[in-house]
Design a protein that fits this description.
- The chain is mainly α and about 180 residues long.
- The chain has one domain: Aminoglycoside 3'-phosphotransferase, Chain: A, domain 2, CATH 3.90.1200.10.
- The chain has five helices and four strands; from the N terminus they run αββββαααα.
- Helix 2 crosses helix 4 and helix 2 packs across helix 5.
- The longest helix is centred in the middle third of the chain and has 25 residues.
- The radius of gyration is 18 Å and the shape is globular.
- The two termini are about 35 Å apart.
- The relative contact order is 0.16.
Length: about 180
């Protein structure tokens, strides 16, 4: 996995020292995990199974990377109306009273986490015969956005997405033996 290998090596070599008191990190900070009320205010925050303590930049990096992946990684322009990366960082500083530290590292760390999940999912779908043998394991929106973020060569081959170009794979029923 060329992009994942290079990013992992770079992150290990440049891991920032922890200069802040750890906070509870959501670790899945993205719009799809938010509920909004009629007034467009957030009324719920979902999907907490990856929560842990860590630096606040973990969630900010995830939010920034997810935005990059859903635009650059998909070969699409950013959606109109969403704040730019710089505007998001400025708003974070305004609301938190602190500047994000080493945010590029945390954005790349988020990208690595997402790329590893997509790779694992792609490999499992192929192994189970639920997807054709494609380049999805190493050429997907996450690895494309990671390569762009860090100035690495883009993955080669056809872009692969878990939804197989818009068709969500039909999953077989979970065998009873898997339930505990």
């Amino acid at each position: 996995m060329p992009v994942i290998d290079q990013v992992l090596d770079q992150l290990v070599r440049t891991c920032p020292a922890n200069h802040t008191f750890p906070v509870v990190c959501w670790r899945d900070a993205r719009l799809g995990n938010l509920m909004f009320g009629p007034d467009q205010r957030v009324t719920g925050v979902l999907d907490w199974e990856m929560a842990a303590t860590g630096r606040p930049e973990v969630d900010l990096g995830y939010l920034l990377f997810f935005d990059r992946m859903m635009s650059t990684g998909m070969g699409l322009p950013r959606l109109a109306g969403f704040p730019s990366r710089d505007a998001t960082l400025a708003r974070y500083a305004q609301l938190s009273g602190r500047q994000a530290r080493q945010i590029n590292w945390f954005e790349a760390y988020a990208g690595l986490r997402i790329a590893m999940l997509v790779t694992r999912t792609a490999n499992k779908l192929i192994e189970l015969g639920m997807a054709e043998d494609t380049t999805m394991s190493f050429n997907n929106p996450a690895t494309i956005a990671l390569a762009d973020l860090l100035g690495l060569p883009a993955p080669v081959g056809e872009l692969g997405c878990i939804t197989d170009r818009g068709r969500v794979p039909v999953l077989p029923p979970i065998p009873d033996s898997w339930h505990h």
